[in-house]
Amino acid sequence: MSTSRRQFLRAASALGAATGIADVSLPAGLAGLAALAAQKTAVAATTGNGYRALVCLYMNGGNDSHNWVVPTDSTGYAEYAAVRRELAWAPTDLRTLSQTGQASGRTFGMPTALDPMRRWYEAGQMAVVANVGTLLRPTTKADFQADLSLPAKLFSHNDQASTWQSLLPEGAPSGWGGRMGDILMSANRYPVFTAVSASGNAVFLSGSSAVQYQVGLDGPVRMGALANGSTLGSSTVAQVMQRRLPNAGDNPWQAAYAQVTQRSAQAEAVLSAALASATAPDIPATPIVLGNGTTVTLNQDSLARQLRIVARMIRAGQSLGMQRQVFFVSMGGFDTHANQMRDQPSLMARVAQSTDYFLSAMAGMGLANNVTLFTASDFGRTLSSNGQGCDHGWGSHHFVAGGAVKGGQICGRFPVTALGTADDVGSGRLLPGSSVTEYAATMGRWMGLSSTELSYVLPTLGNFSGAGTQFL
């Protein structure tokens, strides 16, 4: 894409972001400019691929993925059991994956709590991406020991969570999902719904032009003062605000606040109307036993409910003229320094059953091939046990699911689950075999981004010579 085309695209996108939507009480000229941006400067993402969406499922705290995909061949399992000790699953707790694409003689399984995800893997619609982590460039164990070109503050929750989501440490102004949104938003009739979080503010969705739109578990959150009824005893506040917002005065701070308020109100009205007819299947009331012995049902679970509102927004997007969207959902509890074997089964069950619900919903809507869900987390954890759990690590295994995924395989080289290997930088902290940058690049290409556009989204991509792990 030429510099002039990109500048025009950014300008049009910025205007769309400032106003939030392409119609609903906006000047016809602005709506026309947004339409022109979509038609005349269409990015590669809009050419012939139809609707596409990415859904990031973020596991806060650093997921111990060593117990999610486990070697089951005799040598591999013996190494796993020796290093994991009390954290190791018994062989009877594991279900073998029928094929993996790994070296001859190596076999793998997943624990029974992940059966709903294993079924999607076996159906060819889920892949495991082995040993992914934050890297600035291809890195060896010798580089690590010499402290050469390493990500800042390895093993720190805040910094590594930020680096996973933005490719920069804590304090980053934008994330790679948001930077995708900067480019993709011009393809959408309503740019404000390009980058959507169902889990509060996330740097992953922050862009330069794209502004992340946050929804609640049941849909958009309406401003209290604009809702029906009274505010502080007055029934006229809403009408006064509606009159005042378009004429906020000359004070730039006041005008900016009014603009954001007006955008919020207009977007809420558009989305509420679209969601009224955008149904999603009910979440089943499947019981899940938590580590403390209490039982919840899946339809009460926050992650499942986040994925349901995402499913509804994806369905609503079909009538709203959306072509490209990036979503964010999250779940906590993965910082398992203690009580890991008590708590991990319920964490797994919540992720597996919520994911199963969402993928089934996409299939029922006929959108399985148009939506890709992927997992992310602060970092992996140590292979070695601390007696009750495991500590902060580096590389970890992740899951990518959807109808377009080249499923039924473990992508990348699955490391030996033992200490003292070329992948072990200490206590079983795995040196990543694939970078977050390469992981993201594969999804960016699927979304239709060109090499030039990917360089904007992923500034370190040029440090990696290959095409990355191809699971899409």
From TrEMBL:
UniProt xrefs under PROSITE patterns: TAT
PANTHER family, per the entry: BLL7424 PROTEIN, DUF1501 DOMAIN-CONTAINING PROTEIN
Organism: Ideonella margarita
Protein name: DUF1501 domain-containing protein
